Amino acid sequence: MSAVITTDRLTLRRIWLEDAPTITDLVNQPQIYRMVVSIPAHQTVAQTEDWIAKHPSGRETNTRHILAIEQDKRLIGVVSGERKDTHLPFNVGYWLAPSAWGNGFMTEAAGALLQWLRDRGERAFVSGYLVDNPASGRVLEKLRFMKADRRKVFCMGRGERVDHFDMARVG
């Protein structure tokens, strides 16, 4: 993968080990960990570093493309395309610092990642959002995802099962 994807307002780049403290501070905000199923409450810097250490092998196998989102050289979020195997669609995930909400950054960042994946020949994508996070649903709708299912999923940050909409996009 190219080390950098740029948009009009953002830079998407690989996550570096030195990003761990900033990422940890951000994901420990309840507005983030309560809305992302895979982020635990009270994540430690060591847990973040362990997560970052797994990124290179995922890039090599074309199963994990996880990027920092920067605006004016400040890390404001993360966007990713991940899958268990290369014959499966990429699951698009993301989170954004609350201070950056409401500016269209996530639609811009996720759209850039989707375009990069499409340029590499990918055509099918999945994603989803917790029912009580309609803003995330609006991002996915703007990116042409459609609702496919509603089910309960375990949210690590809440420590309980919550309602979730599964979404999909072809093309």
TrEMBL record:
Keywords assigned: Acyltransferase, Transferase
One annotated GO molecular function: acyltransferase activity, transferring groups other than amino-acyl groups
Domain of life where this protein originates: Bacteria
PROSITE patterns attached to this UniProt entry: GNAT (PS51186)
Entry keyword annotation includes Transferase: yes
N-acetyltransferase domain ranges (all copies): 10-171
Gene3D superfamilies: 3.40.630.30
Family indicated by similarity: Belongs to the acetyltransferase family. RimJ subfamily.
Name of the protein this chain belongs to: Acetyltransferase
Source organism of the structure: Hyphomonas adhaerens MHS-3
